[in-house]
Design goal:
It is built from 3 helices and 5 strands. By secondary structure, it is of the alpha+beta class. It has a 5-stranded antiparallel β-sheet. 25% of the residues lie in helices and 21% in strands. Bound molecules: adenosine monophosphate and zinc ion. Adenosine monophosphate binds next to loops.
Length: 112
């Protein structure tokens, strides 16, 4: 999609440090980290939000990659949090599906 910042990241028009990439997804550090480790995992295909997912395999791939990323950094031992914000009440600010992977500090519950 032309005006989508995450499509531009996936397509290489906006350079980022890629933590992982395969045919379907890319992981990169969040610009405004909310934890010592904060990465985003996005599908290469533009899907605006969780509401718009039609192929559930897409979610399986994103979560699989998030787990792989967390394990590769040793966070399988201490734990981590994965979050998908959806829509206004979910405080989604970028309208291209993304999975947050946060780690490296104690999380709290409930989330704000
Ligand atoms: P959300 O509020 O769930 O839509 O999350 C969007 C996330 O994208 C925020 O945590 C932003 O810090 C992050 N973000 C926005 N632009 C960029 C960018 N160019 N590179 C990396 N992260 C970004
Ligand atoms: Zn997009």
């Amino acid at each position: 999609m032309d005006d989508c910042i995450f499509c531009k990241i996936a397509g290489g028009q906006i350079p980022v440090t890629k933590l992982f990439e395969d045919d379907h997804a890319v992981a990169f550090p969040d610009l405004n980290p909310q934890a010592p480790f904060h990465a985003l995992v996005i599908p290469k295909l533009h899907v605006a939000s969780l509401n718009d997912v039609r192929d559930p395999m897409m979610l399986g791939r994103l979560y699989g990659l998030a787990g792989q990323l967390a394990r590769s950094k040793g966070f399988d031992v201490t734990g981590y949090r994965t979050v998908i914000n959806t829509g206004p009440h979910g405080q989604q600010t970028v309208l291209h599906l993304h999975l947050h992977v946060l780690a490296g500090r104690q999380m709290t519950w409930p989330p704000g």
